[in-house]
Amino acid sequence: MAEPQNYANHVRRPPLLFLAGCFGSTAATLIAGYLLVTDFGAGHLALFVAAASAATGLLFARRFTTGVQDRVIRLEERLRLARVLPAELKGRVGELTTDHLIGLRFASDEELAGLARRVLDGDLTDRKAIKQAVRDWRADDQRV
User: Does residue 51 share a domain with residue 90?
Assistant: First the structure.
């Protein structure tokens, strides 16, 4: 059984898939660039454009995926905050940035109000600091 999720082990990246894609598309772009410079031709130009497009597409696909994930987290956490926060803090939920919400998502319901108050008061300002302040970690086992 895997160890419980916490700040030290919560990040998940698909290393083999992403690194292999990055390495392969970068290598193909460099090789195609070399061929284009040393022996200019329409075929080498097409190869370079295809390789550079693959590398660019891979980076954009990763960025778009994390962007959508951030939007979903923002929505989930706003709904959770509306349910969990005391009345005096509910009206301030709109002041929380996406980074704040991403940091707060790992806090248990019991400590969420206290951490949200610290964020809103300016005591905790960035995602990393918020995550490190979480004591009762709420694991996200469905992340991609």
Answer: no
Within a domain: residue 132?
Answer: yes
Kindly state the percentage of the chain with pLDDT values over 70: 90
Three-class SS of the chain: CCCCCCHHHCCCCCHHHHHHHHHHHHHHHHHHHHHHHHCCCHHHHHHHHHHHHHHHHHHHHHHHHHHHHHHHHHHHHHHHHHHHCCHHHHCCHHHCCHHHHHHHCCECHHHHHHHHHHHHCCCCCCHHHHHHHCCCECCCCCCC
Summarize pLDDT for 68-126 with one digit per residue, the tens. Answer: 989 999 999 999 999 999 999 999 999 999 999 999 999 999 999 999 999 999 999 99
Q: Is the pTM of this model over 0.85?
A: no
Total domain count, the chain: 2
